[in-house]
Every structure is written in C-alpha cells, then in structure tokens.
Design goal:
Layout: H1 3-36, E1 44-49, H2 54-67, E2 71-74, H3 102-119, E3 124-128, H4 134-144, E4 148-150, H5 155-160, H6 164-181, E5 184-186, H7 192-195, H8 202-218, E6 226-227, E7 229-231, H9 241-255, E8 262-264, H10 274-290, E9 295-297, H11 310-326, H12 330-333, H13 341-363, H14 365-371, H15 400-405
Parallel strand pairs: 1-2, 1-9, 2-3, 3-4, 4-5, 5-6, 7-8, 8-9
Length: about 400
C-alpha cells in the first residue's frame, strides 16, 4: 500500500467504523426484541402491502400484524428495479407498490416496532434489493433494520433483463452486507414456474436453489439466512398434483435442512374464482406446515382480481393459522411410502437437477442463461441493462467493507 493509499484508508476509517457500528446496533435491536417479546412460530406468515403510499402501507401493515402476520413485505413500485439510482425521501405515489427509499424503510420499521410491542411479537420487515441497486438498497436496509430482502442472483437477469455480469457482481456485495446485518435473503425461483411448466421445469428450480446457495456461501452468508425459493404452481386440474407438490417441498426441505425456505403460493392458475382459490391456498398451506417451510407467503383468494384488501389478508391469515394449528405435527406423523408417487417424483426431479448441473459445469452459467434453461427466458451475455456499470478493478481499487463484513457479525 502506497503512502497515498494509507492516507485514504486512514481518512475513511472513522466513516467505516461509524457505518459498521450503526449496522451492529440495528442488529442488536432486532435480537433484543426477539429475546424479550419473541416472535411467531415457523412457518412465518408472510403478507404483502402495495398501496404506493408509504403512510397507507403503514396502516395496512399494522392491521396485518394485528391479524397474525409475522413478516410484512412492502412491494416495490413498478419499474424501480430498472433505476440505476435510489430515490430519496418518503413517497406517496408508487404504481403497484411503494418506492424503496431509506426514509420509507425507517417509517415502516418504526411502525412495525410499535405494533410488535402492542401485540407482543416481533414483526419482520421485507423489501427488495434486486435490480440495478442491489448493494445500495441492501445497505439502506442494514442501516434501517430490515429483516428480509429479496436478493436473487438470477432473477434480475431473467425477469428484468439486467445484464448478467452486472447482476452477479452486485449480488455478491449485497449478500455480504445482508449477511453482516443478519438479514434473511429471499430468492425468486418461484418465478420460473410462471413462465415455464411447473411439472417439466421443476428441476430448474432446485438447480437454481443450489446455485443461489453456493453464491451466498461465497459471500459469507450463513445457511440460516438463505430463504431459498420454491413454489406451489402446478395446474390444480392435474391428477395427483398435490402429491407431486408435496414431494418437491419435502425434497427441498431435506436438501437444505438449515435454510428458512421461502414457499410461494399458487398464482399462475388463480382464476378469479375466490372459492376455488381459497382451497388452492389451503392445500398450499397444508404442504407448508407438513414440510416445515420457513417463510410462507400467503396466497390471497382474490389473486388475479385486484391488490388485496385488508379483509382478503384476514381470510388468508385465518386460513393459514387454522391449518398450521390443526395439522401442527403432521410432518412428524406421516411417512412417505417406499416406491410411491412422492418418492418417485422427488427422485425424478433430483436426477434431472443433477443432469442439468453437470451440463452447467461443462458450458458455464452464462451460456445456460443465453440458452434459456431457467424460466424459458434467454438473455445475452453482453445484453441487458447496466453493463455500462461494470468495469475492471484498477490497482488502486479499495473496498475495505468486504474484509470487515464478509462472514462476520
């Protein structure tokens, strides 16, 4: 290190120390709440708010917590993942969601702490650090006490056409930050099954889970913070579809025993028939408690009709709580028949996953993404948004946070 570099490092050190202290203090505050007022049992009941107005989101989030929700996800406004900057301040005019800003994070964290003290249960806050500002939003969340972050290594490439080189670099730094802050990351493999067939493409979900797990480990994120994603997305008219969904959920649970898996509800085949939809969500909830999922994003009977009303969320929470209580220990009671449908399905998906991963070893992840192996979506290596933000490190590159944060608390 040259004299100039030493001077730069010395100048930065107070700012670095202040930032790390701020994150550690936030993490300690969460841990204090968990030790004193506690939290709900797993699977955590996970609901969304998406009014576009942070103050209206607060009203709905607190209502959801009082009804029994454990995690509140504030859906991001349409298109924010494509902004190569972070908006500033409190916002009231989002579209399909609310802007992710540091002030909005602060407002919602304060509101959830208040309602958590009221109901005697810590309420976790979730937002999104996917897109073109993964590390920036991750650090905002670390400063303001978020607990869960959507943070997938492949989602932005596939579903937002963000350049794959940019995304894979950004996910590394964002996961270092989330790991240090004690944030559970969520990955988005469930999205593959909205564009590809849930029966035929099931192995791509598991393959992506394994890729996300390895990339998270490289970034020092512990398994207990890996909310790897999968979903209940088969056509409800499929014969024995429930058994295949059950097999895949149990398989995923056994492959990732320490991860708080994020299980996603039916969406693709929700028709607007609220009665059938409520039954579909009930079947999803049965599998969630049976296979010990970690984060259960609750389905809504009005899925495919409109953004949920508070009454819709109440019905969804009531559905899940009833099933989770009534079937609490079903996973310990039931065994899977040797040679039966569930075991055969799990073996088939796992075998296909191994074959796919072996192909990826030969041709590389970038080539696989170009071929459309995940989600039937093809993306070019040098295409998409954000490539201009990728550059080679110079000999003067300095990022002390990697060493200070990676794999540490």
């Amino acid at each position: 290190m040259t004299r100039d570099q030493k001077q730069i490092a010395a100048t930065l050190q107070p700012v670095i120390d202040e930032s790390l202290t701020r994150i550690r203090t936030r993490r300690a505050r969460r841990e204090h709440y968990l030790e004193t007022i506690g939290e709900g049992p797993k699977p955590y009941l996970y609901i969304i708010v998406a009014t576009g107005n942070i103050y209206e989101d607060v009203v709905q989030a607190q209502a959801g917590a009082r009804q029994g929700a454990d995690i509140i996800a504030v859906i991001r406004t349409t298109g924010q993942s494509l902004l190569d900057y972070v908006p500033y301040g409190a916002t009231t005019e989002g579209f399909g969601g609310t802007f992710a800003t540091q002030e909005n994070f602060r407002i919602m964290r304060k509101a959830l702490d208040e309602v958590g003290e009221e109901v005697g249960r810590y309420i976790r806050l979730c937002n999104y650090c996917s897109g073109l500002c993964m590390p920036e939003i991750a650090i905002m969340g670390a400063f303001e006490g978020l607990d869960v972050m959507l943070n997938d290594a492949l989602y932005g490439i596939l579903f937002r056409d963000i350049n794959m080189q940019r995304t894979l670099i950004d996910q590394y730094m964002s996961r270092i930050i989330n790991g240090f802050a004690g944030v559970i990351i969520n990955t988005g493999e469930d999205n593959y099954l909205t564009t590809a067939d849930a029966v035929e493409a099931a192995h791509t979900v598991l393959a992506s889970d394994l890729i996300n797990e390895q990339l998270a480990k490289i970034a020092g994120l512990p398994e207990e913070q890996m909310g790897l994603g999968h979903a209940f997305e088969m056509d409800p008219m499929l014969e024995n579809g429930f058994l295949m969904e059950l097999a895949q959920a149990q398989m995923t649970r056994e492959i990732f025993p320490n991860a708080p898996l994020k299980y996603m509800p039916p969406t693709k085949f929700m028709t607007g028939n609220i009665f059938r939809g409520h039954i579909q969500d009930a079947l999803f909830n049965i599998i969630g408690i049976w296979t010990h999922q970690g984060l259960q994003l609750l389905g809504m009977p009005t899925e495919a009709i409109h953004t949920p009303f508070m009454s819709d969320r109440y019905l969804s929470i009531e559905n899940a709580r009833y099933i989770f209580n009534n079937m609490k220990d079903i996973g310990e009671e039931m065994e899977f028949k040797e040679g039966g449908i569930c075991r055969q399905r799990a073996h088939l998906v796992l075998d296909n996953t191994i074959k796919l991963l072996e192909e990826l070893v030969k041709e590389g992840l970038f080539t696989a993404l170009e071929k459309g192996i995940f989600g039937d979506v093809k993306r070019p290596k040098n295409g998409g948004k954000g490539l201009a933000g990728v550059t080679l490190k110079s000999e003067n590159y300095l990022n002390p946070f990697v060493e200070l944060m990676k794999g540490k608390k």
